[in-house]
Amino acid sequence: MAKTSTKERATPATHEEKLAELKAHMAELQKQENAQSQLISILHKAQSLYGYLPNHVMDEIAQTMGIPTAHIWGVATFYHYFKLTPPGRYEIALCLGTACYVKGAAQILQAVKDELKIDVGGVTEDGVFSLAPARCLGACGLAPVAMIGEKIHGELTPKKVVQILKDYRKQAEKDK
Amino acid sequence: MDNTKKLTITINDKEYKVDPGQTIMQAADKCGYHIPRLCYHPKLSIEGACRVCIVEVEGMRNFIASCCYPVADGMKIRTNTRELRQARRDIVELLVDNHPEDCHTCERDGNCELQRLVYSMGIRHRHFTGERKHYEKDLSGASVIRDPDKCILCGRCVRMCSEIQGVHCLTQAHRGFNTVVMPAYNMPFAESVCSGCGQCINVCPTASFVEKNYTQELFEKLNDKSLIKVAQFAPSVRAAIGEAFGLAPGRNMEGQLIAAMRRLGFDYVFDTQFAADLTIMEEGSEFLERLQGNGPLPLITSCSSAWMKYVEQFYPDMLDHISTAKSPMSMASAMIKTYWAEKMKIDPKKILSVATMCCTAKKYEATRPELDVHGMRATDLVVTTREMAWMIKSAGIDFVNIKEEKPDSPLGLSSGAGAIFGVTGGVMEAAVRTAYELYTGETLIDIELADIRGFKGVKEAKVVIDGKELRLAVAHGLGNAHKVMEMVRKDRNRFHFVEVMGCPGGCIGGGGQPYATANSIPLDEEALRLRAQALYDLDRGKTIRRSHDNPDIQRLYREYLGRPLSEKSHELLHTHYKAKLPRGIVSPELKIV
Ligand code: SF4
Ligand code: SF4
Ligand code: SF4
Ligand code: FES
Ligand code: FES
Question: Residue B576 gets which letter from DSSP?
């Protein structure tokens, strides 16, 4: 069974396995009436499998469900929830929950944006980082908090977060 | 409720009796009130997005969009109060706030629905200085180019492309301020499922969609002394180009067009109608071949370029039904660069072959490498009716009053059958006239096929040739083409011969025809009918009404090609189609929301 959490995209299945699971999901829906209206559900499934919506997967959905690709694209771009680019190697989930907000999450966000030159929802050009907002990560005691990859970083300051990002980048370079 | 009972309403305090079951806008139209509108088009589903069409209805708290609200008995409607005028004006002002101030240098200056709307609202200056959207133009397509900055998001193109054309190339992607009309994945047009039909251009109220323009290049080349400039023009161009000069639809401007093209600098002006006759000779013979068991039936026509690209992407499994005969434009070009060049002892490399077409997809067709002759591009440039009209104006030629001229020989003389090629059903009618006589050796007396004339989406007819009943089908607009293809797929024996035209009404409704004028709408059915009538009249007025009776066609076969489907014909007049990606999705049920 492939993992469905978008945060741990580590290594679930091969492309073939993911596709098989997506197709099974579509086949199930096709038994229902109005299968085409299930597009959102299918896109959710695809994103949970792939971490985002690759074009070739949307092509698959189009062919299988008989839904024009442009229509799928319209829906996928309409909802902010759907990601259209692969997430960065490290996904930054920056907490904007109440506790973190009170402790200056907005400034942290600004620092991250400036450092990485991306917006919320974006991916850095080198593919190392992507940035997403998060609601309470359940670590309010450490506010302000960000989760980077699988790790929680707390008591952030703008300066501290920039340093942390630099460390991750070094790590990424080494891994290459 | 008795549906035939009339409703009593008042509009601006005057009482009217109107039919039930229509919208306020439709009722008002019939009472002589043209409520301003933008996203509404009678042929498309109602989107109700722009709110330009608001009216006041007594007892309702807010203004309502008249294009999507049904009229009801006793309704008291106001269309022109002070408050309404203000509100409408605000709505339109908001649209233009996010629109470039480009009119002077814009392709649609003077022909723009938005411009007219802004003017009629009394908006005389612009206040806005905020953020305006800016996107790259998509110049990749061979036929259609897209400038999102000019888009006001009325959605007409998206509905046209999906509901009428069944191509579903376009969508409104993203949301709010960031909404952009684009193909899937924001892919360049050249890589999309776009058929090049240009119907999005026809319905777009602004210059957000326009054809790829070749007028400057053509002006340059017309000045090039080293080239021999040869023109051809499609049947439907003559039936519509007058509209671009303020004439009523349906005036045949053939003679004026020829005269004007000579004044523009063309050395020879031929007529695509001649090549339409040639197409009929080849396609008609191909049909008879297949009827005798050589090749699959039904035979499906292939002269519409948008249709060809559509078929390659949406029905790649049915390509063996498609006629191998090239389109009249490509046949004419092939003959210009071989037969005619040899006859004139001209180096074909020195020939500039230019086609004026009612069609934007022909621009793409001209670039197809499989249509090259002897390693040369057959058609060097394609301009639309609109572009040609602009060139004539720009060159200061008095088009309307010019003395009519005749086309050049030997690729200029045409039969009536060649003329009706431009109307849905015309190719079929022309083919039957010739196939009948080639097959039976007898003369067909009643040559007008009433069943396949008119604008019904899919038309069916039967003719008897030599005791054999042949079933014919005709479709126009790619959405209808799709319907006919599904019929064929279900039952390959249902029809013997199928004609498909990619555009509504056939070439007369092509994506390159003149824009709708101030008091008309894009693809107005009455205008289409009048254009069609011009071609039918042209046919009736000719003594030669069958392609095989055209003496210049007979001469061409005698001197050069031998006979239809000869080796030489195959080399120069036939082609093959290949499956293309991306694969199109055939989805008739889905209405884009
Ligand atoms: S699209 Fe119309 S309103 Fe816009 S710049 Fe062109 S002419 Fe002006
Ligand atoms: S040219 Fe035709 S197929 Fe292409 S986007 Fe426009 S309407 Fe759709
Ligand atoms: S491109 Fe033209 S037709 Fe399409 S939504 Fe924009 S303004 Fe309307
Ligand atoms: S609000 Fe940020 S971790 Fe709870
Ligand atoms: S025309 Fe009625 S809402 Fe646009």
Answer: -
